[in-house]
Model the fold of this input.
Amino acid sequence: MTAELVRGQNHPLPRTRLEIRVSAGAALVAGATLGDERGRVAGARCVAHPGAPALPGVEVSRRAAAEHRLAVDLEAVGEAVHRVSVLLALPPGAPGPSRFAGLAAPFVAVTGLDGTEIARYTITGLGAESAVVALELYRRQGAWKIRAVGQGYAGGLADLLSDQGLPEAGQVAGAIWEAIAPGPTRSVAAPPPRTGDDALVRAVSAGAPGGPGLDAAPDAAPPPAEPTTVPQQQEQQQHQQHQRAVAGGPVSYAHPRRQAATEPPAAPVAPPLDPQGPDRPVAGDAGGWSMDERLYNQVWGMFEDLARTVAAYRSAVDFADARREQELDRVLSDARARMGPAGEQARERAHVKREELVARAGEVLERDLAQLVAESEVVEPALPPAYARWDSPVWHAYRVPMEIPMALRLGDVRLPERPLLRIPMLVRLPLERGLWIDAGRTGSEAAACLDAEQIKGLAVDTAVAVAARLLAVYPAHEFAVHVIDPAGAAAARLAPLTRAGVLAAPPAAGAAGVAEVLAGLTERVDLVQMAVRGGAGTDALPPGMDTAEQLLIVNDFPHGFDDRALNQLRYLADEGPSVGVHLLMVADREEASAYGPVLRPLWRSLLRLTPVPDDHLADPWVGHAWTYEPPLAPSGSRIVEQVLGRVGEARAAWPR
Done:
C-alpha cells in the first residue's frame, strides 16, 4: 500500500533500488546531495546535478523539466553516505514562476523499479521559496528510510546547499545554472500507469544491471491494461487530477479515500450487521496517513462509540425511571384511585412500561456493544508494540525502533456495562504532561483488599512498566531515564531497570543525590529554553550535553526533599515537558499533606494513574467515570525484563 506522507513523516523503504518521480507545474531542476550522519555534504563531488548527473548510486536528469525521474541504488552510495537529499529548484531568469507560490504544489513519488509506489508526498505550504529539499533517504541502524522534508529556501539553491554544509555552495549553484543554459527546457510525459501484474516490466527491471534511463523513451508500447480495481481507479484519478494541476486547472489535495466530516453520507446508515458476517470490522479502517495513525484514530473512535452508546443507554434508563415516577405520582395524588384494583393496575402498568423502555434501550446497547467487541477482537491483535498490551505476541518479536511512534498505551479503560471490553488508553508522544502513580489508598474495591505497603509496591511496578514502555518505543539513543529513590526503598522493584543497564545513572539516594539529579535536569531545562528562545539549534548547547528526552522517576516523595528540591520539582513539572524533560512520580498525596496548598499546582499538572483498577478517569464529554487499569504485565511473565534487555543491548551498542 502506498504511504501518503506529510511534512516530517517517515516511512521504511522495503528495497534499495528506487526511482523517484517528480511532477511540477513549471520547469525546474532536480538534483541530489550525499550527506554524512549529520547530513553535511563534504564537497561538490557529493552533489548530483545536470552538470554532473551521475554519482555512485544516484543519477539525475540533465535538463530542467516539469517532470523528472531520478534513479537511486542505495547499496552503491558508499558506507560514508547516510543521507540522500532530493533537491528541487526553479532556474533564475527562466520563463515561468520564479517562486513556488506561483505554481501548483510539487508532487514526489518513490517507486520500485517495477513501478510499484512505496510513498508519495505533495509539497504544500511553499511561498517565496525558489529551492526546496523535497525528501531525504536516510540510513538508520543499517536500514534505509524515507522522510518527507519540504524545507524551502527563499535565498535559492545557493542557500540550500550552504545550509547542508557545502563549502563552495555558490560555485556549485552557478555551475548548475550554466549546465542547463544551453538547451531549452522541456516537459517529459509521465509514464503510463503500471498494473501489479505487469510481468514484462518486472522481468526487465529485475534483470537490468542498472537503473532505468532518465531521458530514454520506452522501446515498446506497454501491454494492454487489465481491468482496474477500485484502488487502481483511485490512483489513476489522483494522477489525472495532478495532471490537471500541471496544466493550470484546480486541484484538491484531499485524501482520495477520506470522506470529509461535513459531507453527508451517500445513503442512510444501516444498523450494525453481524460482526461475523461479510461486513465484519477491519483493523485500520479509520482515516489516517499511515497504519499507526489509522489504528490510533480507530482506537479513539471505539472509545467515543463506547462512551456514546453507554451514555444513550443510561439516559434512556433515567428517562424510564422518571416517567415511572411521574405516573406513580399521578396515581398516588388521587386518594380514590390509589386504593383498590384500579390503583394496583396503574402501578403495574407504570412498572411494565418502565421495563419495556429499559429493555428496548438494552437491546440497542447490546447491539452496539457486540459490534465494539467484534471490532476490539480484530484491532487488538493488529496493534504495534507502542499500542499493544504486554501479553500481546508482538512483544516476542520486539526490536528497538528507529523512529518515535505517535502515541503510547498507558493502560486500559472500561465501563461497568461491559467490563470485559477494554479500550486502550493512548496518549500522544512526546508526553505533554507528567504522570503521577498514586501510591495512596484509593476508593476502589481492589485497593480495599491491599495494605499500604502492597499498594506502594504495585505503584513502583507500574512506574517500571510505564518506563519500560517508553524506553521500548524510543530509539536507543533518544530517551534517558533517571531515578530518585531517597531511602532505597524500591531497590528490589527497580531491579529490571538497573539490571538491563537502561538507566542514565544508578538510582539517586539521600538528600545529596536528590539535589544533584534535580540540579542537572533543571540546568538542562534552562539551557534548552534559552537556545529555543534565542532561535539557536542544539549546536548552541554545551558540548557533551545529552539531547535525548529525559524521564525522571521520583519514588517515596516527599522523603529527602527540602524546600529547594521541592521548588525544582515543581519547575520541572511545569517547564520540563516543552523541552523534553518528563516527570513520573510515585507518591501518596496524604504523606505530602504537610506541605499544604503549595503542592496543589503540582498534583494538578500531572496525569493521575493508579496501580490498581480504580474509577477515577472523569470524562467531561459525557460525564462517565472510567475504570482505569494499569499497564502491568501478566503475573509470572518476564516480558518486561526481556524487552528491557534488548533495549539495554541496543544502548550499549550505540556509538558514543
Q: What stands out?
A: The longest strand covers residues 17-35. Residues 183-273 have pLDDT under 50 and may be disordered. The CA atoms of residues 192 and 221 lie 10 Å apart. The longest helix spans residues 291-333.
